[in-house]
Amino acid sequence: MFAKLWNEEVGPNGEAILEAYQDNTNWTEYMLATNQTPCEATFLGRLSERMELAMVREQLRLDAIFHSQEQENVLRINPSVTFPACMNVIIEHENGEYVEREMWKLLMIRSSLKVLMFYDYREDEKTTDERKRTWLKKKLEKLLEWCRHVDSVWPEARNAEYLFLVGNRTAAEAMPVWRFAIVKPRRFFRKWRISKLKTLR
How high is the pLDDT of residue 68? Predict the structure, then answer.
């Protein structure tokens, strides 16, 4: 279907395509455009509309990747440009409240270990603010709801693991304390309690 619609989109746009194709920058702009240009104004944007799908651009940049440097795990373009054939660990780190975007990236990309690092409110703040007191519980419930939803439409590899690393302080100037939980895909559908977070010692 994609190839057929591509060909149909090329047909009436031959002149614009030929003009844009003369220069790499213009061609990229014609196909994808910049973030300031609406997707629907691009060739691929029009194609996604014809497929009745939404289009987003460059959404899956990871904060960090750990991978083996063994020869069998290296894909080479040339001696100085290589890519890992397998990402052993992928890591997303979020300082703010909205960790869902980082979780989404981990859900979309294959790796045997997916690490999400984020932060809870200070313990002294929780005593006076109900929203802050319940924030972590609600956030973890939402992240696991996303895990279940994605797994139901695009099953996760059974050997994958998610590591949630949650930092917070007891008071304003205190050293952060880290808690963690490891969640495997087969546990996405089990009831999960915040008490399962263990403190790193």
Answer: 86
Structure token digits, residue 106: 């981990």
Sign of CA dihedral 132, 134, 136, 140: negative
Query: Can you tell me the mean pLDDT for 94-103?
Result: 93
Distance CA 133, CA 125 (A): 8
* CA separation, residue 19 to residues 8, 45, 47, 113 (Å): 18, 19, 19, 46
Per-residue buried b or exposed e for 11-28, using 16+ beta carbons within 10 Å of the residue's own CB: eeeeeeeeebeeeeeeee
Report the distance separating Cα 41 and Cα 28, nearest Å. Answer: 13
Strands 161-168 and 81-84: unpaired
What are the tens digits of pLDDT across the range 32-48?
Answer: 877 666 667 789 988 99
Going by C-alpha positions, the residue among 70, 43, 71 that lies closest to residue 57 is 43
**Between residues 79 and 143, which one has the greater pLDDT?**
143
Residue 201: which residues within 8 A CB-CB, separation 6 or more?
A: none
